[in-house]
């Protein structure tokens, strides 16, 4: 199949020529890479990718198509996606499969991208692009299909409050279990809700800046989300109130960073982030290593953590922090994604730990 040409332009001046699929429009955003082998329906609908141009390093993309927008009758959530839309700015791949084959596919990746007005480019040496990002760090970029106007400037979405853009505006409740959990939605993946409800939680999903501390709840879940955690000052202030109240708290990814800031730690931007399904993390004080799914560009510096807190997990690739926990109270968080989708579910036991903390607190 013949496609129009398209160009990937990096902020450092590097240019890559390829071919267009998806929507025909020029865009700009921060370029990042993910080394996972599968899971593009989940990744593209992960709000943590908001504003980013995603490079998938696995060489063949699109071969299993896109699943249907089936809604789970019990939860009212899409069964096969992590939100209700695509969040990436653009997609960059090496080889795009125009022919897809999968029992659950209802459309091609090309059709799905066009539906949400997302441009994509294939025929790119994604290994070369990834090597540039690893050497120089994440940078801004543009994808410009032939015949489309190029954005005038490189757009840096990290200067915006991306969480405010992807967080819901209304309060919504899921499930009818005995444990009342507040989910502070900073860009939550749907499987966090599924994991909580399946463990007996009634989940009250609230906006990122909602003062949930006035609600009747048993535990607080702090979700993943996009961008710089320092933008979420309102969330941090509410978490500080929740820490003072003392009920169980569990944070994932951005939620980990926000709990850490509320506890007294600082955050910083990683050179090129962690985005894959195979990041090894060591549980502190044990020989136990877990394989984790990750998607984040910022990390926690635990040097300023007060003495009552301690690191929970450490990344075995680069030594960065992968979690914190309170030494005596039921508060913990992790940088990786225990809810997976996509990726391994090796650390889903942390949801069990959170529910156990809730049960213990209720029985006191």
Q: How would you describe the overall organization of this protein?
A:
Strands 10-12-11-13-14-19-18-17-15-16 form a ten-stranded mixed β-sheet, sandwiched between helices. It is built from eight helices and 19 strands. The model has no long low-confidence stretch (mean pLDDT 97). It has 364 residues and is of the alpha/beta class. The longest helix is centred in the C-terminal third of the chain and has 15 residues, at 349-363. The protein is 20% helix and 32% strand. The chain has helices at 40-44, 109-115, 126-136, 162-166, 190-197, 233-245, 254-263, 349-363; strands at residues 5-10, 15-22, 27-34, 52-56, 60-61, 90-92, 95-96, 119-122, 139-145, 172-174, 179-184, 201-206, 219-222, 249-252, 266-283, 289-301, 309-315, 321-326, 331-334. The N and C termini lie far apart (66 Å). Helix 1 (40-44) links the parallel strand 3 and strand 4 (52-56).
């Amino acid at each position: 199949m013949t496609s129009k040409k398209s160009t990937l332009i990096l902020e450092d001046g590097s240019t890559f020529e390829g071919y267009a699929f998806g929507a025909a429009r020029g865009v700009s955003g921060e370029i990042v890479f993910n080394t996972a082998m599968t899971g593009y329906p989940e990744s593209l609908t992960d709000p943590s990718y908001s504003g980013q141009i995603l490079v998938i390093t696995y060489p063949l993309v699109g071969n299993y198509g896109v699943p249907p927008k089936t809604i789970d009758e019990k939860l009212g959530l899409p069964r096969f996606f992590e939100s209700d839309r695509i969040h990436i700015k653009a997609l960059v791949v090496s080889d795009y499969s125009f022919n897809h084959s999968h029992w659950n596919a209802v459309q091609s990746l090309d059709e799905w991208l066009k539906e949400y007005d997302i441009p994509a480019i294939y025929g790119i040496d994604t290994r070369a692009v990834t090597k540039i990002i690893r050497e120089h760090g994440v940078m801004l970029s543009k994808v410009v299909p032939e015949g489309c106007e190029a954005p005038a400037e490189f757009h840096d979405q990290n200067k915006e409050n991306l969480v405010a853009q992807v967080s819901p505006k209304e309060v919504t409740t899921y499930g009818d279990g005995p444990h009342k959990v507040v989910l502070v939605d900073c860009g939550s993946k749907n499987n966090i809700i599924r994991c909580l409800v399946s463990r007996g939680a009634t989940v009250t999903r609230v906006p990122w800046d909602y003062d949930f501390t006035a609600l009747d709840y048993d535990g607080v879940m702090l979700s993943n989300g996009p961008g710089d955690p320092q933008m979420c000052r309102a969330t941090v202030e509410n978490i500080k109130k929740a820490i003072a109240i003392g009920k169980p708290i569990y944070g994932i990814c951005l939620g980990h960073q926000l709990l850490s800031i509320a506890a007294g730690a600082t955050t910083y931007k990683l050179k090129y982030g962690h985005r894959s399904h195979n990041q090894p993390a060591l549980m502190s004080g044990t020989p136990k290593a877990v394989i984790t799914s990750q998607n984040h560009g910022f990390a926690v510096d635990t040097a300023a953590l007060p003495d009552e807190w301690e690191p929970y997990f450490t990344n075995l690739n680069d030594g960065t922090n992968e979690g914190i926990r309170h030494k005596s109270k039921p508060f913990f968080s992790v940088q990786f994604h225990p809810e997976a989708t996509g990726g391994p579910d090796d650390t889903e036991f942390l949801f069990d730990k959170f529910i156990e903390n809730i049960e213990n607190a209720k029985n006191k």
